[in-house]
Every structure is written in structure tokens, then in C-alpha cells.
Predict the 3D structure of the following.
Amino acid sequence: GESVGLHLPTLSVQEGDNSIINCAYSNSASDYFIWYKQESGKGPQFIIDIRSNMDKRQGQRVTVLLNKTVKHLSLQIAATQPGDSAVYFCALRWDNNDMRFGAGTRLTVKP
Amino acid sequence: DTEVTQTPKHLVMGMTNKKSLKCEQHMGHRAMYWYKQKAKKPPELMFVYSYEKLSINESVPSRFSPECPNSSLLNLHLHALQPEDSALYLCASSHSLSYEQYFGPGTRLTVT
């Protein structure tokens, strides 16, 4: 069946390094993708989105890359800071405007 | 106002109780959502309202009953819940169905 997944459940990086969080998906009809950050005890927070007519989009310290050929989405965080420590979810629009979330990657930033 | 608010923050209820969760946004968003999130798991979509009409019901048991009284409010009525329904219940809103969703802080529900 269709699925949304992430390559790694946990990621640990040194403060100041760049982080890359990956997401694989299988629904080729998905046309809208979002990255969320969820800190402990809080709701998910929108980071950045990308539509299927683009392959790259940049925000403040974050870049999302979309490779529709291999159905892969990634989030790059530049100069990772302790405040970036959280669980990161990819989400994509499935059929009928149903948004589905990936399993999540826990990012830990070491000082 | 750029936030989604949810009340209560915490709720403990017995299996025979009736309670309601409330969600409010004043961003003019016309789509609102209920999600359920278990510990260490991603949010799972339960219901979607678009222009105050139920758009998606992800085969949620009838003991969960959503209501959208107006474009700013979304309720989730709870009745005869089971202990496995204990979870964080998240509300979200978006400009429309094709835009990013903004989440509230959630209601932590415990069913005893």
C-alpha cells in the first residue's frame, strides 16, 4: 500500500553543522509537501512547503528539495542550533486533500 | 491573531463521561482539522471541515463527533471513550484545503 516514511528515526549533529532530514514517499499523485517541526509538549509548527512543480525552495536557514523521480523529499537546516532540536515530520497531500505525516525524525543538536 | 487555540489543555474523563474539546482561530481560515497523536507517533488525521462542511471523515468511530458551529470554531464531542483513545488531540486550520496548516498546542486526553 501507499506509505510515507523517513530514512532515519534519529539524527544527532554538532551545533553549527548542517542537518539533512530525509523523507521517502510512494504516492506519485502527491502534489504538495510540507515540513513540520514539533517540540516537546507543543503542536507541529510549519517550517516550509513545496509544490510538485518545483524541485527546490529556500527559507531562512532551511531548504527543501523534492525529487519526484525517486519520490524523495529532504529538509536541509544550515548552521544547526540547539533550538532546532525537535521531531521533524514530512507531510504530503494524499488523495482527496488528505494530509499524511511521515513517522518523524528526532533531531538532537549537541553543543 | 495568528494562532490556533485549544481548550482544555488537559482532560481526564471516565469511559461513561461526555466531554467536548474546543478549537478556535481568528485568521479567517476556511479549513479546520482534527488530528489524534499518540506518543512518539505522527499526527493522524481524523476530520476535515471546509467552509464549515465536513469534508473528510477518516473512518473515525462514532464516539467522536465533530462540529463546526462557525468558520472560527471547531468542536470535538466525546462520548463513551475507551482507554486506548488517550492521546494528544490536535486542531489545525488553513487558508483552504491546499495550504499549510497551523496547529494548536493540543489537548492531552486521558481516558480512565
The mean pLDDT of chain B is 94.
